[in-house]
């Protein structure tokens, strides 16, 4: 399997990501046609969400833009209650977003979630992960990364 290093914002450290259409966008035209973009899809999605939040057109953003970051935040804090305790974002705010009852959300709320996730990622990096669920996820990623690098080297 081919891999490519991504040093975008969604990774704790530069990470080998499988070089395929599931993980990367590829240039369609021009001199670089067929080559991958410099950052993986997850990192570009993050950048797109930040760009949507900065768009001054209106005060709302689509929940779908933010959903994967809500899910990551919950998985890092183990539960919705964990998010509320760590970051003060109420369960009553996240629950309807998570379950599709609100298709748009205030940018203010989205920005709060993104900030909480940046803080949580930094904490997890410092503490080598506080939650068991996230720690086992990290181990999975580490094993996968090593495997990918081994395959890349041979
Ligand atoms: Zn990336």
Amount of helix: 55-70%
Distance between the termini: 11 Å
Summed over residues and divided by their number, the pLDDT gives a mean of 85
The dominant shape is globular
Count of discrete structural domains: 1
Q: N-to-C SSE series?
A: EEHEHHHEHH
Q: What order do the strands of the largest sheet run in, or round the barrel if closed?
A: 1-2
Approximately what portion of the residues adopt beta-strand conformation? 5-15%
Helix-and-strand structural type: mainly alpha
Specify the number of helices: 6
Main beta sheet, described?
A: 2 strands, antiparallel
Can you tell me the residue ranges where pLDDT is under 50 for at least 5 consecutive residues? none
Evaluate the radius of gyration. Answer: 17 Å
Bound molecules: zinc ion
| Strand runs, count | 4
Keywords:
57% helix, mainly alpha, single chain, globular, 154 residues
Describe this entry's structure for a reader.
The protein has 154 residues and is mainly alpha-helical. It has helices at residues 41-54, 63-77, 80-87, 91-98, 107-127, 132-153; strands at 3-6, 15-18, 60-62, 104-106. It has one domain (44-153). It is built from six helices and four strands. It has a two-stranded antiparallel ribbon. The protein has a two-stranded antiparallel sheet with strand order 3-4. A hairpin with an 8-residue loop joins strand 1 (3-6) and strand 2. Helix 2 runs parallel beside helix 5. The longest helix is centred in the last third of the chain and has 22 residues, at 132-153. It binds zinc ion. The site of zinc ion (ZN) has 9 residues, from helix 1.
């Amino acid at each position: 399997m081919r891999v490519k290093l991504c040093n975008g914002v969604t990774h704790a450290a530069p990470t080998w990501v499988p070089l395929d259409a599931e993980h990367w966008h590829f240039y369609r035209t021009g001199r670089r046609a067929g080559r991958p973009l410099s950052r993986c899809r997850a990192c570009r999605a993050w950048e797109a969400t930040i760009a949507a939040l900065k768009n001054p057109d209106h005060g709302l953003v689509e929940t779908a833009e933010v959903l994967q970051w809500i899910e990551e935040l919950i998985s890092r804090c183990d539960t919705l209650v964990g998010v509320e305790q760590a970051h003060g974002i109420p369960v009553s705010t996240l629950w309807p977003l998570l379950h599709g009852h609100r298709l748009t959300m205030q940018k203010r709320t989205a920005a709060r979630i993104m900030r909480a996730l940046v803080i949580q990622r930094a904490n997890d990096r410092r503490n080598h992960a506080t939650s068991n669920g996230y720690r086992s996820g990290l181990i999975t990623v580490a094993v996968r990364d090593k495997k990918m690098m081994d395959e890349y080297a041979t």
